[in-house]
Amino acid sequence: MASTETTEDLEATIEIAAPPATVWSLVADPTRAREWSPQVLRTFVRGRPVQQGTTFLNLNHRGPLVWPTTAKVTTFDPHVRFAFRVTENRTTWSFTLAPTADGGTRLTNRRETAEGISGLSLVMTRVALGGVDTFTDELRAGMRETLAKIKAAAEASA
């Protein structure tokens, strides 16, 4: 089921007092997503090491509702950018790392919808997740929470 309806791209950024290599080790391992994201219950990676082309399965949740998504790593540029495309809704999620003048990292988390969001995903969002606007607001809040947790972990290990 395809749709030409799109939703806006989402972006959140945080400054982290840890070098890009430290931050990279956290964001480029999909199995750690459950530590950061309030939506991810578990991630199963197919094959190791993670690299461009690696696929994985996420189990996501919102309260008692649980749903799977599959994804493929589309960009694996160490210490710079990690991105993956979710098959079911056609979104691309990424972490972009930029060194700061003080030796830290500016980490940006993005959700891009260049191809729009699949019709099936839009219907499910409307029916089970309170609508596109409500769910988008939850995603924004989740991105901020994710970045705050990555920051805390990176700074604790730096």
UniProtKB/TrEMBL annotation:
It holds the Pfam family Polyketide_cyc2. It comes from the Bacteria. This is SRPBCC family protein.
